[in-house]
Amino acid sequence: MRTSQLLAMTAAACLLLAGCGTAPLSRFDVTGANNILNDWSCEAADNRQACVDDYNANAGKRLLRGHLIVTVFARYGAARFDSYSEDIVNDSTKLLGRVETAENELAKAVAVAAKAGTAPGIFYEVNRVDSFLAIIDVMEIATRPTRRGLLGFVLLSSPAERVDAGLDILRNALKDKLYLDAYRKSLEKTRLYVGDDKQKLQEAWTTINTQLDESCKRLAEYAKLKAHHCIPAPTPASKPAG
After folding, report:
1. Which one of 124, 149, 157, 206 is at 20 to 30 Å from 196 when CA atoms are compared?
2. Computed from CA positions of residues 222, 227, 229, 230, in that sequence, does the dihedral angle turn out positive or negative?
3. Quick check: pTM over 0.85?
4. Are 228 and 96 in contact, with CB atoms under 8 Å apart?
């Protein structure tokens, strides 16, 4: 990733730390974050508006997209810690923890979304916020070793301002043409393949779970853990309501 992108992503550091659960957290706009994800994932679509409408109407596909992004950054960390980390055991342990947190938040969001058609879904938006913040935290931990020593790394200001920068973090993190662009194209092919087929959606979850598990095994080796697997994202038995 380019230096400017990596520096921008450091602003995610406070999102799940003490102090971020106060009033400034409300500045993180989930709708805006979802729009950024739509802009990124639908750039590869032949019909951009149809792609955006599809994600906006289908919580299952939005959650699948989030699961892919967690997997991408788990893989990013697993591939780069060996070359860039100054404390590979600690960095790998932290990333495993953040990946598990993100996967748990995605699982909660799936459970709530699945009931949205028959229940009020009072905490659905809360789960969406938790999921977005957890995903950004995975991005921050995965890229932290490659940012160490870069000019300006410690020049970011208050936690409130970092939360304000949340949308820019997400936007900048998704600009890497060499890495994320390939996943974007794969995601678009998957979206079209899945359509409204519940079984195909489940197959897509399973495929991504396999990729995530491979990265987590590598991170576990770095962390010197005898056995460790990231908690897999759920494979919805039914299509969640949008």
Report:
1. 124
2. negative
3. no
4. yes
